[in-house]
Amino acid sequence: MGSLLIRNVKHLVTCDEKDRVLDGINIYCENGLITDIGKETREADETIDATDMLCFPGFINTHHHLYQVFTRNLPQTQNKELFDWLKINYEIWKNLNEDTVYYSSKVGMAELMKNGCTTVSDHHYVFPKNTGDLIGAQITAADELGIRSHFTRGSMDLSKKDGGLPPDSVVQSVDEILKDSRDLVEKYHDYSFQAMHRLALAPCSPFSVSGTLLRESAKLARELGVRLHTHLAETKDEEDYTLEKFGIRPLEYMESLGWVGNDVWYAHGIHFNTEELQLLADTGTGVCHCPTSNMSLASGIARIPEMIELDI
């Protein structure tokens, strides 16, 4: 990669423990890593003049659905809560193919990069039959853009006929999902330091996957040494679903299936109660905040200040 000097940065936002802002500073990098921050000027293979510019660490997007870029802002999906919104969109998403996933992912990631995001985690869970390598299409798009990616092999095994929301054509059997998950991790996951693409396993949600899929995905992820991700505590409808079907709240249900720990992160986390927040903190389980989605679908407001206080 060679060396890079970013010189004369007007304000460097460090995002360190003290939230320091350094003025009139130089940043020196070798082989993609920062090796020095200070006033000293060095020779480098490439120099960027950052006079009158701000510099800050790249943002990390921890939850996205890039394929949904091509269906955003449809009139028929406006002013809908999550379940109704999903039912409308599934009838479109069941026609996904490699081209759609490639182009929508590329547009979405380009938008992220324009706004300072250098790493993206995408939760792709719609796999219509005979549509090719959708995760591979995303990785190709990411590599062409130069963004670091941590994609997920999402999944659903409960369709309408099983009491779920998606049509039959986009769900798969547990065995199909686990085999493809293993194959994709072996093909694409880079375990090395400074890896540009990694994978996690990500069954969609408690109301669209079976307990068997959740349990077996957790076992497989830990066997392969990859992370786990899903939606949780996003809506009151989800909470009502697990209370009615299993007699327990969503987080307790997930805990019973092995879904807590420092290798697990949940999307949304709006409706966790105080005891559940403490459990997340105690187990090192992560939560990613999705305020735009939560406002658009009127799902609620996550207790982010309390999570930060608990070091979640």
What is the name of the CATH topology of the largest domain?
A: TIM Barrel
Instruction: Report the strand count.
Output: 13
**What is the CATH-assigned architecture of the largest domain?**
Alpha-Beta Barrel
Give the overall average pLDDT.
96
How many independent structural domains? 2
SSE topology string? EEEEEEHHEEHEHEHEHHEHEHH
Question: Quick one: biggest sheet?
Answer: 8 strands, parallel
What is the CATH H-level superfamily of the largest domain? Metal-dependent hydrolases
Low-confidence stretches: none
Q: Structural class per helix/strand content?
A: alpha/beta
Helical content (DSSP H or I, runs of 4+):
25-40%
Estimate the strand proportion: 15-25%
- What distance lies between the first and last C-alpha atoms, to the nearest angstrom? 35 Å
Query: Rough shape?
Result: globular
The number of distinct helices, counting runs of at least 4 residues, comes to 10
CATH top level class name of the largest domain: Alpha Beta
Cα radius of gyration in angstroms: 21 Å
Describe this structure in words.
- Helix 2 (98-114) packs parallel to helix 3 and helix 4 packs parallel to helix 5.
- The protein is of the alpha/beta class and 312 residues long.
- Strands 6, 7, 8, 9, 10, 11, 12 and 13 form an eight-stranded parallel sheet that branches.
- The protein has helices spanning 82-93, 98-114, 134-145, 174-188, 211-224, 236-246, 250-256, 274-283, 291-296, 304-309; strands at 3-13, 21-30, 33-38, 46-49, 54-55, 59-61, 117-120, 123-124, 148-155, 197-203, 227-232, 264-268, 286-288.
- The chain contains ten helices and 13 strands.
- It folds into two domains: 3-55, Roll (Urease, subunit C, domain 1); 59-309, Metal-dependent hydrolases (TIM Barrel), CATH 3.20.20.140.
